[in-house]
Amino acid sequence: MCYLPLDEYNRKWIFTHQSMPVDDALLPLIKPFTQAKSAQVWNDFISNNSPTADHFGSKEWPMKKSSWTNEIDWQHRWDSDNESLPEEVLEFIDWSDEVTVYFCYEKYNLIETSWGTFKKTWKNFLFYDDLPLLIGKKKSQVLWFNSKGKVKLGTRS
Fold first, then answer.
1. How far is 140 from 138, CA to CA, in rounded Å?
2. N or C, which terminus of the chain has less Cβ within 10 Å?
3. What is the pLDDT of residues 119-143, one digit of tens each?
C-alpha cells in the first residue's frame, strides 16, 4: 500500500479546516503517501542524502543557482480573496490538469495529487510552508516555496 487514508494523515486538518475546507469531491484526489513511499519518491526525485530542505548540501540540485530562474511572491495572493495561484506560476507551469504532482514537505511526508487539484487547493497545502517542493512526476519544472512568502521557479536535474 502506497497511500495513507486521508483520515489517518497527521495534517488532514489543513484540508478540512473550517476557514478553508476543500470540496468533498476533491478530498479523494489528495493522497498522502506512507512514510516508506514518501522516502522512495524523495530519494528518486529530490535527494538521497538530505531528509529535509534545511539539510540540502551545496552539490544537490535544489541548492544550485542554475536550477532557479525566478523567485516571486506567493504570500500576497494566499492572503487575498483570489483563489488562483500567482500568474507567474501559472505561466511557468504549463502542465495539463491531469499531470501527477508530488507536494514534498520532507522525506517522510509527501502527497500525490494532480496539477488541477493542486491549483484548486494550493492555499491548503501551504498552511505548512517550511520549504516544500512541488514537482511533476515526469516533468522537470519545480516550485520551491518558503515561509517568507516566496516561491522559486526552476528545473530539477
1. 7
2. N
3. 999 999 999 888 999 999 999 999 9
Q: Is the pTM of this model over 0.85?
A: yes
User: What values do phi and psi take at 27, rounded to 5?
Assistant: -55, -40
Q: Are 110 and 88 in contact (CB under 8 A)?
A: no
First to last CA, the chain: 29
Question: Does residue 101 contact residue 121 with C-beta atoms inside 8 Å?
Answer: no
User: With contact defined as beta carbons under 8 Å apart, do 117 and 89 qualify?
Assistant: no
Q: Helix, strand or coil for residue 110?
A: strand
Place of cell 520549504: 131
Which residue is associated with the grid cell 484526489? 29
Report the alpha-carbon distance of residue 31 to residue 53 in Å, rounded: 21
